[in-house]
C-alpha cells in the first residue's frame, strides 16, 4: 500500500475503528462536545475526512499519534526502522557490503514501515551494496528505476550518486557508449541548473573521465580533467581533490606521460591517505604501484610493498575484479624481481578470482602465465597459454583495454620469433583503437579484372 492509498478516508476510518475496538471502546467514548458519535460513525465508514484538529483529539483518546491515524505508520516502528537504516548505511561505509545488502533487503521487505524518504535511502543503499559486491546486473535495474523516481530531485546529492553509479555500472559491464551518455547527460543537467561548478560536477566528471579513457577518447578526458582540477583546488576537500588528481593521473598515463602520471597519482594518494574509504585508498596504492613498474626506472620492491598493503585491504572491502587487478600487478612486480614462482602463484590466484565470468583481466593473467612458462623454458605450456589467451581475447569488443592486451600478446609472440602471430596481434590492437586498415589498391584492380 502506498502513502496516498494509506491516507485515503476509508483506510483512516478503518484504523480508527480497529484501534477503538481493540481498546474496547464505543463510538460514544470517542465523542465530545465538538465531535458527535454519528460523525465518528461517518469517519469510520470513510464517508468523512477528519480535519487535523479532529485527528489530534481522536489520537489522544486512542493513545497514538495523529500521523499514525493519517498514514498507518507507527512512530516507534518508524524510528526503529530509521535506526536499522543508519546501521545498514554504516556497514556499507565500513566495507561490510554483504551485511549491508541483507539489512537493506530486510527493510525493503516491509514497505508498510517505510515512509518515502526512508524507502528511497534504502533503495539507494541496496543498489550501492550490489555494485560493490560486483553484482552489476542486479544493481542496474534498481538504479534505472531510481533515476526516474520523482522523489529523487535532479541535482540532489542522492540523484548525483545514483547517476554516477549507473554510469559506472554500464562501464563495468562493457557498455562504454551508454556509460558516457549517462555521464554527459548528468553533467549537462548540473550545468543547466545554473550553479557554479560544484563537487557534484567533480564526482560525475571523475567517472566520465574514466569512461572516456576506456573508449580511448584521450582528448575529451584531458580537457575534462583540466576543467575540474582548478575547481577541486578552490572548492574541493582533500578527497574531492584526490579523486580529480587520480583521474588526471590516468589521463596522463594514457598519453604515455609516465612521470606526470606518477606525480599526479602520488599526490592523489597523499590527499586521500586519511580517508575512511579504504577501498579508494587501496586502489590508489595499486595505481601508484603499477606506475612504479612502468617507469623508466622501475621500483619493483616499493611496488610490491604497496600492492601487498592494498591487497590486504581489497580482500576485505574490494570486489573480485579489483582483487584480481592487484594480483596481476603483483605478477609484474615479482617478474621484475626475478621471483618467478611467486609471480606464477599470483597469476593463478587472479584467474581463480575471475572464474565467474569472461573478463579482459583474465586474458592479462593468462598472458603473464604464458610469459613465465617461456622464461622457464616450458615452451609448449607457454605457447598453449598464449593461444588460449588469444582465443579468449577475440570474444571481447574493441576497447582501449583490449588494445593493450593485443599489444602485450604481440610483444610476447615477437620475442618468440613468431612474426606471423605477432603481426596479427598488432593488427588487432590497431583495430581495437579504431584505426582501420589502409585501402588495398591491388584489391580494386582485382575487382576491375573480374568485371
UniProtKB/TrEMBL annotation:
UniProt-recorded name of the protein: Helix-turn-helix domain-containing protein
Taxonomic placement: Bacteria, Bacillati, Actinomycetota, Actinomycetes, Kitasatosporales
Source organism (scientific name): Streptomyces flavalbus
InterPro entries: Cro/C1-type_HTH, Lambda_DNA-bd_dom_sf, SecYEG/CpoB_TPR, TPR-like_helical_dom_sf, TPR_rpt, TransReg_Diox_bact_type
Keywords for the protein's UniProt record, in alphabetical order: DNA-binding, TPR repeat
UniProt xrefs under CDD domains: HTH_XRE
Entry-linked PROSITE patterns: HTH_CROC1 (PS50943), TPR (PS50005)
Keyword Protein transport: no
TPR repeats: 403-436
Coiled-coil ranges per UniProt: none
All residue ranges annotated as the HTH cro/C1-type domain in the record: 16-69
